[in-house]
Request: fold
Amino acid sequence: MKNSIKKYLSIMVALLIVFSMAACNAETTEPAKANDDAKESSESSSTQSDDERVEEEAAELEPVELSIGFWNGADVFGDNDPMLDYVQEKFNVTFTSKGVSWSDYKEKYKLWAAAGELPDIFAVDEFNTDTYSSWIQQGVIQPLPDDLSAYPNIAKVMQQPDVAPLNVDGSYYLIPRLNYPSTDYWRYDRGVIIRKDWLANLGLEVPKTFEEYKTVLKAFVDGDPDGNGVADTIGITHKNIAMLDVFYLGTTPQLLNGAWVEEDGTWVPPFYASTTKDGIAQLRELYVEGLLDQDFAIMKNGDGQEKFAQGKTGVIAQQVGPAHLRELKQMWEKYDHDTEFKDAIAVVYPWANAEGKQHSFVQTTFWSESYFNGDMSEVEMERTMMLYDWLFSAEWLELKLYGIEGVDFEKDGDAYKILLDKNEDGTYVALTEKYPSLKVLDSLAAWDGYTQLLDSDKNRSTYGDDLMDIVKEFGEYSIANIEPMPTNFDVKLLPAEGKSTIAGIVYSDDMIRIIMSDGDVAQEWATTLEEYEQYGLTDAINDVNNKIKEQGIQ
Reply:
């Protein structure tokens, strides 16, 4: 095993518990030191004693039934599920489920809230919306206990820098469902994949500036990079239209995460920033010159991946973690190629800004939240807090990563021996197939997207050495050379009425329209911003800035 699984697990536990940006950076750039620090932090955090305390307290309490609302979560709590049995017995609780789909979850929760039929626990992304505010005012959701000392793992989550601003009038009405232990790990969720074999065929280097990208893209379109003698190749495409925004990292990077931008002493929404028109102009230039997929605005999710897999495009904007690379590789292998996937691609960054800096994508460590029904009894809420505190613990992390010890894995010193059956392609059978309850419980408190980045035997078996090596190389280069995009999370997360107004402005549609038009970009965008005044744009900006001043945010 290249690196001790136990030590990587210690890193993850420490990150989830301590949530220190500095520790995250040290972990990536100084593995040996980080392993020791993380192990020491984990061993000194008294997590095990907390687990034992929670279990003992639960056994003394009356049985409780808790309903959970979750994506595709219907009927996952059934019989013959030892993982479910373990968790329910540990907390003297019985779970029931109310499933929602990705297409209807927000509407369902709103309908259930109006009818008084919300599940006890549910996950949704409603923070800083009118719905969120009304739920608080109407008592639809209840706050966390003011004193979280009995739930130290929850307390540490709520103290994270990008979580602390979620406080509303002295209370927290949610627990963020962490995707990563640090905002910096979002770099893997917006990336660029380029055909490095085409670069080699054409004698070109990896581009870093907009002009260098144009040169490469023109060669990809006109220079017969695949050598088939036919002009049938495309420059840039995307996995889905949202991924194309990675190319705004060189002008207004905040367009990717919705963070406000300070210009001349005033905070403005990213689409209002003076540099936004420049980003639109760059994509317009690529579109007009035939270097951007001419169907970019109408393609369905995955269409661009198929084009890349078929060898029809040289650049694709999409996520670049192991799972997403595997998805693209599987598409690639459906077609005949002279070059293996690992030898054909490189994960790179979009072009630099005017100062020559390339930026990586960052976001809050969460994108959705757990909420708790305002009608839950004190006993039910207490049990829920005990459950969530444990879902942030070392024991649960090990369970959801490796399963049940002695059944799904064995420990041999620092190493984990995986006992799971394997599929025909050599990957391990997913724990969710063996324990259906994990389809909900695995991600109930946190997405933990970081776990797929662990350089472990299990991940290397699941994703392949080739893809894990590509991701590792990308991460190391990125940390050493690329600055995270500037984001003021205090401003981004500040509740303000003006933000609700601005949230209703669908500016991305207008940006696409202008990219495909033939008018003057600066004038068209200026006219569009003027039209937004009908929604009260200036008043909304003033409201947010007044709130910023009241809070003393710098």
About this structure: The longest strand covers residues 64-71. Residues 465-481 form the longest helix (17 residues). Residues 47-183+366-463 form a domain with the D-Maltodextrin-Binding Protein; domain 2 fold (CATH 3.40.190.10).
